[in-house]
């Protein structure tokens, strides 16, 4: 969460300050022009979406070696149960079978990157089946991933998984059932 908050703050536009009207020195002017040029956000988005799908494929195959290349050395994951794993713990859990997926896929992938093209956040919906620490995994999960561009390419530095408890369609079913029950009860009067 701290990494995500830091990333979002870093991506926010600069606040209007009283120094804005003062002339910038040459170094600051160069930095400003480089920042304004910006990275190709469409290319960053395509790269991250590809990596999100590669992550899903690796999880579906329980391929810890592939995940080792995707996760940064300082990777942290907040699981659906609130537990936290670092890269070593996550890979060990997959290798031992403590975490084992029968299926895993992402959709609804949204990506935002910083202006420099060195950081990105992806939010997606995962559909998964399997086990984690002896508990059954089945259903949909909202997943937030933080990505950093390193000398070795993009690496996932953080992940957060939150179960999706009910879709809007499912949420309307109890109301519809309650209405039907009420109608049936009134019909008997």
Any idea how many domains? 1
Spatial ordering of strands, largest sheet: 2-1-6-5-4-3
What proportion of the residues form beta strands (DSSP E)?
Answer: 35-45%
Largest sheet: 6 strands, mixed
DSSP summary, beta strand count: 6
Shape descriptor: globular
**SSE arrangement, N to C:** HHHHEEHEEEEH
Distance between the termini: 55 Å
The number of helices is 6
Rg result: 22 Å
Question: Could you explain how this protein is built, in words?
Answer:
This protein has 6 helices and 6 strands. It is α+β, with helices and mostly antiparallel strands. It has a single domain, classed as Nuclear Transport Factor 2, Chain: A (Roll), CATH 3.10.450.50. Strands 2-1-6-5-4-3 form a 6-stranded mixed sheet, with helices on both faces. The radius of gyration is 22 Å and the shape is globular. It starts with a helix and ends with a helix.
Main features:
189 residues, alpha+beta, Nuclear Transport Factor 2, Chain: A, 6-stranded mixed sheet, 6 helices, 6 strands, 42% helix, globular, disordered N terminus, disordered C terminus
State the gist of this model.
The protein is of the alpha+beta class and 189 residues long. Helix content is 42%, strand content 35%.
Break the fold down into its secondary structure elements and pairings:
Elements: H1 2-11, H2 26-37, H3 41-60, H4 64-70, E1 71-78, E2 84-86, H5 87-96, E3 99-113, E4 119-132, E5 135-150, E6 153-163, H6 168-187
Parallel strand pairs: 1-6
Antiparallel strand pairs: 1-2, 3-4, 4-5, 5-6
Helix pairs in contact: 3-4, 4-5
